[in-house]
Design brief:
Residues 16-283 form the Nucleotidyl transferase domain. By secondary structure, the chain is α/β, with parallel strands linked by helices. It has a single domain (14-287), classed as Spore Coat Polysaccharide Biosynthesis Protein SpsA, Chain A (Alpha-Beta Complex), CATH 3.90.550. It has 10 helices and 13 strands. β2 (39-40) and β3 form a beta hairpin. α3 (80-88) packs antiparallel against α4 (92-104) and α5 (118-124) crosses α7 (229-235). The longest helix is centred in the last third of the chain and has 25 residues, at 293-317. It is globular and about 60 Å long. The protein starts with 13 loop residues before the first strand and ends with a helix. Bound molecules: 1-O-phosphono-alpha-D-glucopyranose (G1P). The site of 1-O-phosphono-alpha-D-glucopyranose has 14 residues, from β11 and α8. 1-O-phosphono-alpha-D-glucopyranose (G1P) is lined by residues 118, 140, 142-143, 179-180, 206, 218-221, 246-247, 273.
């Protein structure tokens, strides 16, 4: 049974997950395997997002996919035959693993025919929202933000201050050109969150040159947006990279007086969008895995020691 908005713990019914990208940084793997299905230890990134959305209390995952990325949705299917075979062999733990994705949340797909940008992708999700949904959550599956309660904190800020709330994290000045960057001002807050963690956003700019960046606080792939974002998305023009940018629609709303705040994330973040972030994420999760952790720890230490000895020898022989 569908819940009405009031009964949802954080007011969020639908989480939008843009997953239509080509995954060029993971070629050749992504010739046949969508980036969102690459595993962190044994679980695809998209299932980790589904888990976070379910933990927030959402009931629907609106997955924006490209026409040739049907496997992403298949991951949320039932797999009855596989479950029966595993059950007949007494592999109950594996049955749970197979069934988990479909039990976490109801996934629905929205097809983005052309890669016109993140803003365009998010805009397509309007078609699957119910009329009573006045807030839309967006989670970018490239970003793992841990622990998984950051959206709940953002929902609390939205409840206290209204408007839209985004998650931010601090990067070095050389890294800002990869992100949406915030122009912020401090605010007094009675929120139960520490005041240093909540700031008002005066403006937002997508992937600026470091010299033009208004701060080093950047968007971390978690958004709690007022429904009027769809109206703003219809009014923006192509921006950075010739694409329709979500950042530009948020900036438009700010300039027209819509309140936007950030919650500065103090936990961990992994970037699953490229191998240099994906491999550390696997190491981090792998080290903590109850079954594989000890072996991974031993192997990782050995690999590092060998690597350092090699580099040392090379440095001496040069
Ligand atoms: C997107 C957003 C950017 C945000 C980033 C977070 O960029 O456009 O504003 O900071 O995600 O990962 P992308 O990494 O998809 O280029």
């Amino acid at each position: 049974m569908q819940k009405s908005n009031e009964t949802l713990a954080n007011g969020v019914k639908t989480v939008v997950v843009p997953a239509a990208g080509m995954g060029t940084r993971f070629l050749p793997a992504t010739k046949t395997v969508p980036k969102e299905l690459l595993p962190v230890v044994d679980t695809p990134g998209i299932e980790l997002i589904a888990e976070e959305a379910s933990q927030l209390g959402a009931e629907r995952l609106a997955v924006i996919t490209a026409p040739d990325k049907g496997e992403v949705m298949r991951h949320f299917g039932a797999f009855d035959e596989l479950c029966e075979t595993l059950a007949a062999r007494g592999k109950d733990e594996q049955v749970q693993k197979v069934a988990r994705a479909s039990q976490l949340i109801t996934a629905v797909s929205v097809t983005q025919d052309k890669p016109l940008g993140l803003g365009h992708a998010v805009g397509l999700a309007e078609a699957v929202l119910d009329d009573d949904e006045d807030v839309v959550a967006v989670m970018l599956p490239d970003d793992l933000v841990l622990p998984g309660d950051v959206m709940a904190k953002m929902a609390q800020v939205r409840q206290e201050l209204g408007g839209s709330v985004l998650c931010a994290f601090e990067v070095s000045p050389e890294e800002v050109f990869n992100y949406g960057v915030f122009d912020i001002e401090e605010i007094p807050t009675d929120s139960s969150l520490p005041s240093s963690a909540v700031k008002r956003v005066r403006g937002m700019v997508e992937k600026p040159d470091p010299a033009d960046a208004p701060s080093t606080l950047v968007a971390a792939g978690r958004y709690l947006l007022d429904r009027e974002i769809f109206e703003a998305l219809r009014r923006i023009k192509p921006g950075k990279g010739g694409e329709l940018q979500l950042t530009d629609a948020i900036e438009l709303m700010i300039q027209e007086g819509h309140p936007v705040h950030i919650v500065v994330h103090s936990g961990k973040r992994h970037d699953l969008g490229n191998p240099a972030g994906y491999i550390p994420a696997n190491l981090d999760f792998g080290l903590r895995h109850p079954q594989y952790g000890p072996a991974i720890y031993k192997a990782a230490k050995q690999i590092l020691a060998d690597f350092e000895a090699e580099s040392h020898n090379t440095a001496i022989s040069e």
